[in-house]
Amino acid sequence: MTYEVPDVPGEKTEEVSFSFDSRGWPLWEVFVRPKRGLNHAHVGSLHAADAETAVQNARDSYTRRSEGVSIWVVPSTAIFASDDSESFFEPFANKPYRHPTFYDIPPEVGQL
Amino acid sequence: MNTATVTTPLARYVVRLADDNLILGQRLAEYISEAPELEEDLAIGNLSLDHIGVAMHLYEYAATLGDSSTTADKLSFLRTEREFTNVLLVEQPHAGFGDVIARQFFFSAYQTLLWEALASSADTILAGISAKALKESTYHLRHAASWVVRLGDGTDESHDRMQAAIDSLWRFTGELFESDDLCAEMVISGAGTDPAALQVPWDTKVAAVLREATLTRPTDPYQATGGRTGMHTEHLGYMLAEMQWMQRTYPDMEW
Amino acid sequence: MQTTAGEVAFHELIDADEKIEPRDWMPDGYRKTLIRQIAQHAHSEVIGMQPEANWITRAPTLQRKMTLIAKVQDEAGHGLYLYSAAETLGISRDEMQQLLHEGKQKYSSIFNYPTLSWADMGTIGWLVDGAAIVNQIALQRTSYGPYARAMVKICKEESFHARQGYSILLALSRGTDEQRAMLQDSINRWWWPALMMFGPHDSDSANTPQSIEWKIKRVTNDELRQLYIDQTVPQAHYLGCTVPDPDLDFDVETGHWSIGAINWDEFWDTVKGNGRLNRERITHKVKAWDDGAWVRDAATAYAHKQQTKLEKTA
Ligand SMILES: [Fe+2]
Ligand SMILES: [Fe+2]
Ligand SMILES: [Fe+2]
C-alpha cells in the first residue's frame, strides 16, 4: 500500500488501451557512464522532443547525485530487441567446454 | 546595531552578487511543480539550487569580512527591500514558462561573463566561488538558450509568446551593466570587475541566440534602474514578505 | 482451457522468484493491475510535490530551503522513474496523466491533507516518506522487473528524505516552547493519515490475495503497518512527543505496539475525492499541464523542423 491506492468498492476501474499512443514527446533510453573506465549502462528513460534536450533532461534527471560523467540517449523506437524465448539462448547453455572450469589441470602446472 | 548588515566595500560587493542569486533562486523555486513537463521540473529545481547555493557561499564569505557579526541567514531573512541590492531583472515575477526562460536567458548570459571575469579576481576566495559558479551558469545559459530557440522557432503561438516575454523583460537588461562607485573601487582593488565591459559580449551572445530563434532583438530605449541602491520594483516586497515570514514571525530561533 | 507455453513460463518464473520482464507473456490481469498500481504510485510522487512545494518559498533557513527543493525535486524524479516503468507495459505517460486529470486514476490520499506549519515539512519526511519507505523496501522484491528496479533507485534516495525530515523535527524538539507546540500539533495532524497510508485491513482488502500470488505485493497492508508503528512510536517519544492515540499500548510479550481504531470513514471519504484538498491538488496539476501545452507543442514543432532540414540536406 502506501502509494498504492485501494479501489473504492463498487467504483469501476478505468479501461486502458494497451496501445502506445504517440501523443507527447517521444521516449528516449538513457545510458550513463558512471565513471571513466566503465561502460555506459542503461539507467532508465525519459521524454524529450529532440536529442539535445534529451541529453539535458538526462543530466537533470539521472545524474543529480553525480551518478555519471557521460550520457548517451537513444530513441526508444530505435532499439531492436531480441526474442527472449528459451530457444534463442538455450543452445549456449550446453557448451560447458567454453568455460575454463571444464578442464582439469594439475596444480603443479601453475598459472594458466 | 542591525546585525544583518555588512560594512566593508568588498563585503557589500559580495552581498550584491549574492542578492542577485538568492532572489532569482527564490523566483525559480516558486515555479517548482508548475513546469510544462516533469523533466523540466527537475531542470528548474537544479537551476534554483545552483543559484541559492552560490548565494549562500557568497553571504557566508561576506559575513567573515570586516568586524561584522552577521550570518548568511541573517543577510537573507532580516534585511528589508531597501537593503537588498539585486538587479531588478531577477525579482520580476513570471506569468508563465516564457518569462521564466527569458529572465534566465538574459541573466545567465550576463552571469557567465561575470563569473568568467571574477574567476581571476585578486580576491582568491571570490575567485574560487566564481570559478565554480561559472560551470553552473554555463549550463544554465545552455539550457535557457536552447529553450529560447525552441520556443522562438517552434509554433506561431510560441514564437509570439517568446517574443512578448523577451520584449517585456528587455527594459531590465541595461541595469546589469551599470557601473557605480562600488564597482569602481572593486576594479581598483582588483577584487571586482567593471560590468560595463560585459555589455558588448553579452549583446553579441544574446543577438546570436535571438537570431537563431527567429526572434527580434528589442530596441526599446527605456531602461529601468535602481536595484543596486535598493530602489526596487514593487514585486520584491511581497517576495521578501513570504521568504522571510518564518524568521520574522519566530525571531531568534534555531531551525 | 488450453494453457499456452507463455503462461507456463510466466508461472514458472513467478514460482522461481525470478522477475517478469516487459516482453514476457503475462496475464491481462497482471498487466492491468501493474499499470494501475505503478501509474497511481507515479501520480502520488508527482502530486506529492505540492504539499511540500507549499513551504519551499517560506523555508526558515537557506540550508533548509535547498534541502526541501532537492527533496521535492527527487519526488519529480520518482514520478519520472515510475511512469517509465509503467510505459514498458504499453501505456504512455500522457495517457496516464490524462487518467489522473480526469479522476479515473488516483494518487495517495495522504497528499490531500494541507501543510499548515513548517513542522509539517519535518513530519512529512519522517512519517509520510517513512511509510513510503517501509512499503517500497518490500516492493524492491516485486515480480515485475522495471517496477522493482525503479524501487531500488527510489529507495536509495528516500532515506535522505526521512532523515532530513527527522532532523527538522529534532531542531524543533530542542527549540522553544512555541516550536515544540508546533511539532506536537503537526504529529497530531499527520499520525492517523500516515497510518492510513498502508490501506484497509487485510480482511477488507479485496485485491491483496491476487497481488500476493503474483508477487506484485510481497507483504500485506497490516504487516507493513505494524512494522511501521513499531519503528515509529519510539521515534516520536525520542522527540519528546506523543502520538494522538489514547489506546496506544505496548505488548511486552510480543514486543509490538498496538493502536486504537482507525477512522475508515475519513479514509474512504478522502479516497473518494472528498478530502481536504483533493480538488485543489488536481486543479493545480491540470493548470500546470494546460499552461505548458504551448511549450510542449513548440518543442515538438521545432524538432520536426530540424528533422525536415536534416532530411533535405541529406
Ligand atoms: Fe518519492
Ligand atoms: Fe520521498
Ligand atoms: Fe515520497
Task: Please provide a written account of the structure.
The complex is a heterotrimer of chains A (112), B (255) and C (314). Chain A is of the alpha+beta class and 112 residues long. Helices cover 14% and strands 18% of the residues of chain A. Chain A is built from 2 helices and 3 strands; from the N terminus they run ββαβα. Chain B is mostly helical. Chain B starts with 8 loop residues before the first helix and ends in a 6-residue tail after the last helix. Chain B has helices at 9-30, 38-63, 72-77, 88-91, 97-118, 124-152, 156-169, 181-189, 199-212, 235-243, 245-249. Chain C has 314 residues and is an all-alpha fold. Chain C contains 13 helices and 2 strands. A two-stranded antiparallel sheet of chain C has the order 1-2. In chain C, helix 3 packs antiparallel against helix 4, helix 4 runs antiparallel to helix 7 (145-173) and helix 6 (119-139) runs antiparallel to helix 7 (145-173). The longest helix of chain C has 29 residues, at 145-173. At the A-C interface, strand 2 of A face helix 2, helix 4, helix 5, helix 6 and helix 7 of C. The complex binds fe (ii) ion (FE2) (3 copies). The site of one fe (ii) ion has 4 residues of chain C, from helix 7. One fe (ii) ion binds at residues 45, 48, 75, 129, 132 of chain C.
Offer a quick outline of the entry:
With 112 residues, chain A is an alpha+beta fold. Helices cover 14% and strands 18% of the residues of chain A. In chain C, 68% of the residues lie in helices and 2% in strands.
Structural features:
heterotrimer, B: 255 residues, Ferritin, 63% helix, 0% strand, C: 314 residues, mainly alpha, two-stranded antiparallel sheet, 2% strand, binds fe (ii) ion
Order of helices and strands of chain C: HHHHHHHHHHEEHHH
Task: Indicate the structural class of chain C.
Answer: mainly alpha
Large-scale geometry of chain C = globular
Report the β-strand fraction of chain C as a percent range. under 5%
* Neighbour order of strands in the largest sheet of chain C: 1-2
**Estimated helix fraction of chain C:** 55-70%
Low-pLDDT runs of chain C = none
Mean pLDDT of chain C, as a whole number? 95
Compute the number of strand runs of chain C.
2
Main sheet overview of chain A: 3 strands, antiparallel
Q: How many strands appear in the DSSP assignment of chain A? A: 3
Radius of gyration of chain A (CA) equals: 23 Å
Distinct helical segment count of chain A: 2
The hetero molecules present are:
fe (ii) ion
The overall pLDDT average of chain A reads 87
Strand order of the largest sheet of chain A: 2-1-3
Number of helices in the DSSP assignment of chain C: 13
Please give the alpha-carbon distance between the first and last residues of chain C: 55 Å
- SS-based class of chain A: alpha+beta
Following the backbone from N to C, one meets helices and strands of chain A in this order, namely EEHEH
Which assembly state applies to the chains in this document? heterotrimer
